[in-house]
Design a protein that fits this description.
The complex is a heterodimer of chains A (132) and B (144). By secondary structure, chain A is mostly beta strands. Chain A contains 1 helix and 13 strands; from the N terminus they run ββββββββββββαβ. Chain B has 2 domains: 40 residues, no CATH class; 93 residues, no CATH class. In chain B, the strands form 4 sheets. In chain B, strands 5-7-9-11-13 form a 5-stranded parallel beta sheet, with no helix packed on it. A 5-stranded parallel beta sheet of chain B has the order 6-8-10-12-14, with no helix packed on it. In chain B, β3 and β4 form a beta hairpin. The chains are: A mainly beta (132), B mainly beta (144). Chains A and B meet through β11 and β12 of A and β13 and β14 of B. β12 of chain A pairs antiparallel with β14 of chain B.
Chain lengths: 132, 144
């Protein structure tokens, strides 16, 4: 896990709306609405709600994600994780107890053939960033 | 074959009638609808292709060199896949385990799924957890 200083964190008492881009690690502890693009790892914590289309290098889900998830490397859907949306990844780990409703495509081919999200990653911005 | 020698409760996959079978039973007829039933635990260690349906009241294990190609696969127990499963629809009454060597394709409904790092999934619709077979309380019912 990256050091706190290298991590973008949406706090447990925060509700973020907009588009988030990150380079290394991002962690959603609260609520997020929008889109997420990153090269590193996105972590969705146990009580977090993430209504977003996600593209990242790796995604670890302990909370709830409503939207499509695309990872260049690994998606980890842990026991408390819930995903309602499609998952496309090179590799995936799913633990017993996890919930997943959507289309699943896992493998090197799946990651290459998946449609890429519209537009290149933009600098971090948000309409109501940090609104509590 | 089941190692447990005691009777166990099964549910007919034709009419959903529940009844007891011996622990070593491999097949039987449903007393509710008189249709034949497979109740054994199936182990697939070679190609089984061209099947319309593969159904059992027990479990299915697909070994590393095993491959199932079927329209529908239904197991009332768990499904463990080390090899290849290709189906249109897969339903399970218990956990589906996709090992790191597994390749899987098929719309899946199961109470739980465990997927290991390295397993490959061709585009398939997942609904987890779900209880498509209505087996949720089967283990809780006591044998008379």
């Amino acid at each position: 896990m990256a050091e706190q200083g290298d991590m973008t964190v949406v706090g447990a008492d925060s509700h973020f709306e907009g588009k988030l881009t990150f380079e290394r690690t991002a962690k959603i502890n609260g609520k997020f609405d929008g889109t997420i693009n990153g090269k590193g790892e996105l972590q969705v914590s146990q009580n977090a709600l993430c209504k977003a289309d996600v593209q990242a290098g790796a995604v670890a889900v302990d909370g709830r994600v409503e939207g499509n998830v695309r990872a260049g490397d690994t998606v980890r859907l842990n026991g408390s994780g819930v995903v309602k949306g499609d998952i496309t990844a090179a590799k995936m780990v799913m633990q017993e107890g996890a919930s997943f409703y959507g289309l699943c495509a896992v493998g090197p081919d799946a990651a290459q053939n998946a449609p890429k999200p519209a537009g290149p990653p933009q600098p971090q911005e948000g309409k109501d960033g940090g609104k509590k | 074959m089941a190692k447990n020698k005691g009777p166990r409760l099964v549910q007919c996959y034709h009419c959903r009638h529940r009844f007891e079978v011996g622990g070593r039973a491999q097949s039987t007829s449903c007393p509710g609808c008189n249709k034949p039933l497979i109740v054994e635990d199936l182990v697939i260690d070679k190609l089984k292709a061209g099947l319309i349906e593969l159904r059992t009241c027990g479990s299915i294990t697909v070994k590393k060199k095993g491959r199932i190609m079927a329209d529908r696969i239904e197991a009332h127990g768990w499904i463990v896949c080390y090899g290849i499963i290709e189906a249109k629809k897969v339903v399970s009454g218990q956990t589906v385990v996709l090992a790191k060597s597994a390749t899987y394709r098929g719309d899946l409904e199961a109470p739980a799924v465990e997927m290991a790092l390295g397993a490959k999934v061709k585009p398939s619709q997942f609904a987890v957890p779900s209880d498509p077979l209505g087996l949720g309380d089967l283990g809780e019912e006591k044998l008379e």
